[in-house]
Amino acid sequence: MGQERSTTNVPRFTPEELAKLNESMRGEKPENILAWGIKTFPGKLMMATAFGVEGCCIIHMIAQIDKRVRIINLETGYQFKETLLVREQIKERYGIEVEYIYPEKTVTEYEKEHGGPLYDIRPDQCCYDRKILPLRKAVLGYEAWISAIRRDQTDVRKSAEAISWDTKFQLVKINPLLDWTIKDVWSYVMKNQIPYNKLHDLGYPSIGCEPCTRAVQDGEDERSGRWSGKTKKECGLHVVEHEQGSGI
Ligand code: SF4
């Protein structure tokens, strides 16, 4: 589908080295995993955030370690205004200006081209055009990226490791919060007074684009409000290798 990324990146670790590395990372604090990434990939490490509460925790940690890590947000044009506000709060609190990465076409141009929005009828295509392709361009020249996924979020994420090779984006992927529960996340936020998306207080545990996110009821899975009523569960950014192809 569409344009593929050309890259000269090669896996930096053999599978055996990765296994050893992950063994040595077991039980490590997220700050230490992040610090390892920052030290190992100077100037070549980046993070993409949708300003979810986990991402805000990582930004807080990055601010204590090295503010030069490039942090981007995929501004699809469909994000909640509450989400965009978090970017401003982060700038004010940490002096970190999260960089917006835009798709090739504005929402108006895109919907005109397709005779209306695609998020209801072809959400995979919409995510591909408005998230995956812009991200592929943004990661060019980088060697590693940080994600804020937690192992207990979805079945797909259960098999993730702290450090892995991301074949889709040709980057080393660093997942510092894998072992945290949502309770760990919120206690860290409260303890450190970290800015977060106020939609989390209104029943939105996981927040993506506005047309594809709803509040969840008590007892529902925390990601059940994403692409509700559709088989789609991931935008394709954090799908592990054996699931690739189903994510975007
Ligand atoms: S989450 Fe929805 S609106 Fe956002 S890019 Fe994907 S399909 Fe489009």
Task: Tell me about this structure.
The chain has a six-stranded mixed sheet, sandwiched between helices. Strand 2, helix 4 (81-94) and strand 3 form a beta-alpha-beta unit. The protein has helices at residues 15-25, 30-40, 53-65, 81-94, 107-114, 123-138, 155-158, 182-192; strands at 45-48, 70-74, 99-101, 144-146, 163-166, 171-174. The protein is globular and about 50 Å long. The longest helix is centred in the middle third of the chain and has 16 residues, at 123-138. With 248 residues, the protein is of the alpha/beta class. Helix 3 crosses helix 8. The protein binds iron/sulfur cluster (SF4).
Short key terms for the protein model shown above:
binds iron/sulfur cluster, 8 helices, globular, 35% helix, 248 residues, disordered N terminus, six-stranded mixed beta sheet, Rossmann fold, disordered C terminus, alpha/beta
Number of continuous helical runs: 8
Q: Biggest sheet: strands, sense, closure?
A: 6 strands, mixed
Q: By CATH's scheme, which homologous superfamily applies?
A: HUPs
Radius of gyration: 17 Å
Q: What amount of the residues lies in strands?
A: 5-15%
Given helix and strand content, the structural type is alpha/beta
SSE topology:
Elements: H1 15-25, H2 30-40, E1 45-48, H3 53-65, E2 70-74, H4 81-94, E3 99-101, H5 107-114, H6 123-138, E4 144-146, H7 155-158, E5 163-166, E6 171-174, H8 182-192
Parallel strand pairs: 1-2, 1-4, 2-3, 4-6
Antiparallel strand pairs: 5-6
Bound molecules: iron/sulfur cluster.
Residues 76, 78, 119, 123, 126-127, 130-131, 208-209, 211-212, 235 line the site of iron/sulfur cluster.
